[in-house]
Amino acid sequence: MTEATSNVEFAHKIHEDGHRHQTTGGQRGRWIEIAEAVVLAIVAVATAWSGYQAARWDAVAARHYHIAARIAVEAQGKATLSGQDRLYDIVTFNGWVGARMGGNEKLSVYFERRFRPEYATAFAVWIKQDPFNNPSAPAGPIFMPEYKNANSEQSEKLKHEGETEFEEGIGSAETGESYIKITVLLATVLLLTALSQRFRIFGPRVTVVTVAFGLLVLCMYWIATYPQA
Questions:
Q1: Tens-digit pLDDT profile for the chain (229 aa)?
Q2: Alpha-carbon distance 173 to 68, whole Å?
Q3: How far is CA 144 from CA 26, 86, 100, 104, 139, in A?
Q4: Which helix (H) or strand (E) holds 62?
Q5: How many CB atoms are located within 10 Å of the residue 32 CB?
Q6: DSSP class of residue 201?
Q7: What's the predicted TM-score (pTM) here?
Q8: How many Å apart are CA 3 and CA 140, to the nearest integer?
Q9: How far apart are the C-alpha atoms of 19 and 15, rounded to whole Å?
């Protein structure tokens, strides 16, 4: 916004200096002065709008980055819980296998009751395959398609959401940079307008103003086509 304010102040100064350096070109001189005044007025408004949009998009990018960071923390928490769930499943299963192989039916039933509901579902399908006698059976319930881990699934979902938010943050930051580039180009328009007012010869003055106006049209096209916050 500081650069935008500087451009507006510069435009005002150019307009004042223009009155102190009137062109002696008769009717043509008055028309070129009107054109310069129009360019300065449009530049002042366009610069203020571009600076405003740049600030807004920076804020939008910061919000996306903040959300992405928060989601990343939640995803990491779910991933930690997922690892703990998997470790618990392995420990209880190993205890069950030990009890089963040792012929301790009571202890094996005890471990079965301690299975997590998600693991118990996979275990029920796995045990039906007669794994102790069927060599083609999976090594354990965690290798079954029925084995689910809600924390792991939520972690992956959160990771995807976090990546999406981060990408949106990058896109918003790039849009803000685009508006800053427009502001810089508008400063070039101001410079050309200031130079044109120093020419006493009509031809070169018209040429410089025409170039400035062309750049201004390009800036206005970008402003009209870029997304707005």
A1: 555 555 545 445 544 554 444 444 556 768 888 888 888 999 999 999 999 999 999 999 999 999 999 999 999 999 999 999 999 999 999 999 999 999 999 999 999 999 999 999 999 999 999 999 999 999 999 999 999 999 999 999 999 999 999 999 999 999 999 999 999 999 999 888 888 877 777 788 888 888 999 999 999 999 999 999 8
A2: 14
A3: 91, 13, 20, 25, 9
A4: helix 26-101
A5: 19
A6: S
A7: 0.73
A8: 66
A9: 7
